[in-house]
Amino acid sequence: METTSCASRPVNHPLDPLTPAEIETAVAIVRRERAPGDDVLFVSVALHEPAKDVVLAFREGGPIERRAFLVLRDRKMRATCEAVVSLTTGAIVSWREVPGVQPSITIDEFFACERLVRASPAWQTALRKRGVEDFELAMVDPWSAGYYGVADDPKRRLIRALTWIRAQPDDNGYARPIEGVVAIVDMDAMTVVEIEDHGVVPLPPHAGNYSPAALQDPKNVPHFPDGVRHDLRAVSITQPEGPSFEVRGWEVSWQKWSFRIGFTPREGLVLHTVAYDDRGRRRPILYRASLAEMVVPYGDPAPTHWRKNAFDEGEYGIGMLANALTLGCDCLGEIRYFDAVVADASGVPTVLRNAICMHEEDFGILWKHTNFRTGHVEVRRSRRLVVSSIATVGNYEYGFYWYFYQDGTLELQLKLTGIVSTGAIAPGERPTHGALVAPGLYAPNHQHWFNFRLDMMVDGVRNAVHEVDSAAVPLGAENPGGNAWVVNRRLLGRESEACRDADPLAGRYWLVTSAEARNGLGEPTAYKLVPGENVRALAHRDSSVARRAGFMAHHLWVTRHDPAERYAAGDYPNQHPGGAGLPAYVAADRPLENEDVVLWYSLGAHHVARPEDWPVMPVACVGFALKPAGFFDGNPALDVAPPAGHAHDHCARS
Ligand code: CO
Questions:
Q1: What pLDDT is stored for residue 654 in this prediction?
Q2: Are residues 391 and 462 in the same domain?
Q3: What secondary structure does DSSP assign to 547-575, as a single string?
Q4: Are residues 444 and 502 in the same domain?
Q5: Tell me: the pLDDT tens digits for 362-396?
Q6: Which residues are catalytically annotated?
Q7: Is 226 a domain residue?
Q8: How remote is the CA of residue 121 from the centroid of ligand 1, in Å?
Q9: DSSP 3-state assignment of 210?
Q10: pLDDT confidence band for 2 (50 / 70 / 90)
Q11: Number of compact structural domains in the chain
Q12: Which band of pLDDT confidence, cut at 50, 70 and 90, is reported for residue 608?
């Protein structure tokens, strides 16, 4: 195992994330020039990425101008400011107050909110009504407020906090929701504005713990009288010659892939400048790939739940919440870790140890054929490279896994795990808008929506996007036997034509073609975006959450590249009344053919909870793939060597 300590690494590329020293410098410049008081939160400090042409023209050793982008919240003035500072010149490049917006909630505020609510007499009264006296055992989760009318105006920094109660400090509090109590907190003024109490529902009777020590407790749901299993024998993954990748700073090369790893406090793991070496030619595929927003709309009209819909990226920061990954637990084998650096709310750099994990996996067979006449077998094993990061957002865990394959496929897999958000229900009742997971305890129906921004660069910056469907040919002269079907391709020529939905029954995918390069068959070289499991958004289009998460309305959006358009629900979704992000971006209806295009893929993970999801849910996977489709002349993995350590025909005889 090796950890790349970012603290000591020199900057050698314009896309390298900020170092701790650079964050200190950025904050020091702002402090010197603007003298922010103690009421000012440093909501985020991140690299201000240089323009695409600057990055693409950069050559190793060339000059680099480093800039940082800061978002600040002045709680006393109730103002949000954006600053760009040059770390190279030590000056503020731009400073602006952004009117009427709320930046994301900082981790420091999570705990401040909990302390405030616990001290509220009205909240304490509500808990006493439910038989709770020890308020220190309450968990108060800072659910973002959303926007449900003028009282939620983003002038005020609001949280709608929900409460759960533990039996002891290390208890899983989500087993005992305080149903009906919503605390509205003003985080600028640091006051509890209101405690809503919608009526008492008894606390669920059982514990929901999941550590080995808890399994045999008959009060736990579920419980295992025999405790943990003891019949699993060791497996060890060794790579005696070391891993097959090379790392230089944030740059990775593996097999024929090369790319840069990035990390921002808001997006978490980012991929930059993904390219493939095709017989000596470095061919670009993607300029930048990132999570552009996510939201979890709950489908329960009950007073405690109907406003639950966290935009976990824009309202909290997926990077800020990254886990420190551990060898043998999160990742197995020859691991390379990358640390990430973020700033806390007072601007102090914080190193997130092992925030990104990279390793190789054996992935079954890559390709095979047996010549049944001669018995000759050719088979290759598939090795894939995994770059991953896991974020804990309150009760949930989200794992983001990018897989690089030897056949030119790039896949994103999301792993959803953690604890479902719960509600309490009276004994004997069954929830209409959720599922019982334990006696008196239910998980409301919900969806997890993600949007990935894929700034494509298929053999050059200029690309075009086509929708490709398969369709049966009508019976007739063209199809006398009724068996015929064709593949229809349609150019998505403008932004207004490129708001599209998945159609698995038509085998639909979206093809991104190069404006310049041709393959051996004379066709434009191309990659295709292949949807995985997906679903329709069930929130009504006029609902608050659907207006705010406009990206849920379609699975595919395509925009002409604009570096200012990076987030699918806009720059400041927290308490935003709606309409920002993709719906606003595509309103320009820019032409897309052979332009610098960005694909935005929206992905809904539908979650009807099962008892098996309790108390901590087994990983559920959703994702999509980018696959070469006429990018190469033939199978690009033909040159993968036969399995090592075996005579060439060994596999044939065994
Ligand atoms: Co879920």
A1: 43
A2: yes
A3: HHTGGGG-SEEEEE--TT---TT-S--TT
A4: yes
A5: 999 999 999 999 999 999 999 999 999 999 999 99
A6: 312, 396
A7: no
A8: 33
A9: coil
A10: low
A11: 3
A12: very high
